[in-house]
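User: I'm new to structure prediction. If I give you an amino acid sequence, what do you actually give back? Let's try with this one:
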Amino acid sequence: MMNYSCMLLCLLLALESSVVAVATTSLSIPRNEAAPQLTRKQEETSRIKNDALAYKGGESFDQRRIVHPLFFSSSMAALAGCSHVLCMKRFEVYAAMMTGNIIGLGVAMGEGNMSEAKFRLSLIGSFFTGTLCARSLESRSLCTDKQHHKVVAPIAVGIFAIADRIPDNHKKKLILLSAAYGLVYATANRTLNGTITQLMTGHLTKLGAAISDRVGNSRFFNYGTVTSLSILASFTIGCALGARIFMAVDQEKPIFTIIGAIYAVLLILFRG
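Assistant: Good question. You get back a string of structure tokens that encode the predicted 3D arrangement of the chain. For your 272 residues, that looks like this:
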């Protein structure tokens, strides 16, 4: 169990150096542009800088992070992929991805399975409650200077730990996990100025559009494109790691507590 936890931590640390290097390389400006293209180059460079600044959330002292934003988003994506696989393998539902639960709700209603429909609705409501709590904590006066992440972190770990102590055959376990994931990802997405790290369709769409633009008119990938590429790669790695953990680790081990603790560390360091 600890071997896989250490593997996950090492993987996230290795990603930090690689994604920063990729961002630096992808955002570099060619030096052999012709003189008539100077204006376009200047505009593109300015846009890239603005994208990076917007993504980082500003440059004031109270907004500086200990970890790089690209590493943070990639780590959250890897943990999301790992969580999705573990939940699907163990419970046959997604506790952190509500699209699957909404589909399940619709199917259950269509088949007249009201018991399953109520269960899916409870997961959706629990995740929604977690997002409401995250936003509420952010707006409270006790969480000034955008430091509400330090309040969210221990709460999330506590919910994950409580859920881990509930047997897998109890629906309360999944309801608590959904609330914890809603709390964590609402906070993370807000921190990243709306960048979603637990769902991949938008990033894949953005990447396809960026490649098309690069082949056509523009020669540069902007910061958002690099972020989407890194999130997609990290999510895939997280899914693979989740499958390995499921096969190798006893289900009685507190795997979700460990995942919650990693979430908490990332939130605290990113806004520390």
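You can read the tokens as a compact description of the fold. Here is one thing that stands out. Residues 14-38, 50-63 have pLDDT under 50 and may be disordered.
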